[in-house]
Amino acid sequence: MDDRLAGYLKTRRTIPAAQLGEPGPDADTLRAILTIATRVPDHGKLAPWRFILFDAESRAAAVEGLTRIAETHADEAERQRRVQKAKGFVDAPLVIAVVSTADPGHPKIPLWEQQLSAGAVCLNLLHAAQAHGFSAQWLTGWYAHDEEAARFLGLKEGERLAGFVHIGTPQMPPTERDRPDLDALIARWQPER
Ligand SMILES: Cc1cc2nc3c(=O)[nH]c(=O)nc-3n(C[C@H](O)[C@H](O)[C@H](O)COP(=O)(O)O)c2cc1C
């Protein structure tokens, strides 16, 4: 067994994006991270995902646009919640949108399987960031599910946001959180008699 790898996987913990500071990955490191991120199980080798990068230059404009969209919401409380949440888009030096480009009409590979592969990309991104000395958080938020926001952020018709992965240097040590009761999650199948 690889003790270091098992040790990492056993203790992996997300550090909140608001606690991820400079530096973020440089161009070469980012490429290495994205290379790992795309090395995921992918039924049919469709690569049904892509990335949109939000770095220092573009993130302020993204927040401005998301705030504008948030301000059009009819409900006052929801409007305020969305405006507040939009500010979090600039947490961490780099934000990577993982976009599912899954094709519902694919003749062989079900949509669900293609979408699961996008989730695998997000998790691999977390591992890849960590392997390069950074930390990362997988987030969504209202702007991941709002059509106008999705269009504004560069998603094309039919695409879906799998996650925004915020990457930076941790400003705090990880803390533990409750984990599910493993035994409650395991069933042993038996044939009906
Ligand atoms: C698809 C997806 C979306 C998520 N969106 C959010 C979010 O919007 N806000 C949030 O606080 N955590 C969100 N999380 C949870 C965090 O990524 C993370 O799992 C959590 O902060 C800590 O868990 P960990 O330390 O086991 O990674 C999301 C997780 C997944 C899988």
Give a structural overview.
This protein is α+β, with helices and mostly antiparallel strands and 193 residues long. It contains seven helices and five strands, in the order H-E-H-E-H-H-E-H-E-H-H-E. The chain has helices spanning 3-11, 27-37, 56-70, 76-87, 111-131, 142-145, 147-152; strands at 20-21, 49-54, 94-100, 135-139, 160-170. The model has no long low-confidence stretch (mean pLDDT 97). The structure holds flavin mononucleotide. Flavin mononucleotide (FMN) binds next to strand 4.
Ligand inventory: flavin mononucleotide
Which structural class matches the secondary elements? alpha+beta
Q: Would you report the number of β strands?
A: 5
Largest sheet data: 5 strands, antiparallel
Q: Radius of gyration in whole Å, from Cα? A: 19 Å
Residue stretches low in confidence (pLDDT < 50, at least 5 long) are none
* Oligomeric state of the chains present here: single chain
Order of helices and strands: HEHEHHEHEHHE
Give the proportion of residues in helices.
40-55%
Distance between the termini: 40 Å
What is the average of the pLDDT values? 97
Q: What count of helical segments does DSSP give?
A: 7
Strand content: 15-25%
Shape: globular
Please give a handful of descriptors for the protein shown.
193 residues; alpha+beta; five-stranded antiparallel beta sheet; 7 helices; binds flavin mononucleotide
